[in-house]
Amino acid sequence: MHVLEQFRYCPKCGSSHFVEASEKSRKCENCGFEFYLNPAAAVAAFILNSKNELLVERRKLEPAKGMLDLPGGFCDMGETVEQAMKREIKEETALDVVDMKYQFSQPNVYRFSGFDVRTLDMFFLCKVADETQLKASDDAAECFWLPLSEIHTEQFGLRSVRQALHTFFDGVLG
Fold this sequence. Notes:
4-stranded mixed β-sheet; alpha+beta; hydrolase; NADH pyrophosphatase activity; 2 domains
């Protein structure tokens, strides 16, 4: 089932004449409103400590509960991706970002509440003020530093993060 098929009624006027207009939109035949399903913006961080270990988290919630992840999450309305990156790292790890550099992006499908949320995940290389202040919070069950030699992408729950790890390590170690 295409994700737009789940939208049966116009969100503006409530009409049931809300039909497919294109692969990425539905249009109301009653009021003319057209809805485009664009990806949600999300961020994730590569953070290396002084021992060249990667900061990873264990997911507290679905999707991929119990699997590994990178610090990050969805961008809120009205914030930049840089602000979102700082906020998410602070919420999940208690660490303060002092520098960040955009690396690359990956499309992703994030299953939430029975709905496939299409995302555009943007990955940053971040530096933090004091790596010893690490404390898991928010939707991170635990946070820890993992030696690069012990990174196994199959232990990470989200497809975009697995792909990003390959891309990142090709660039860092390649």
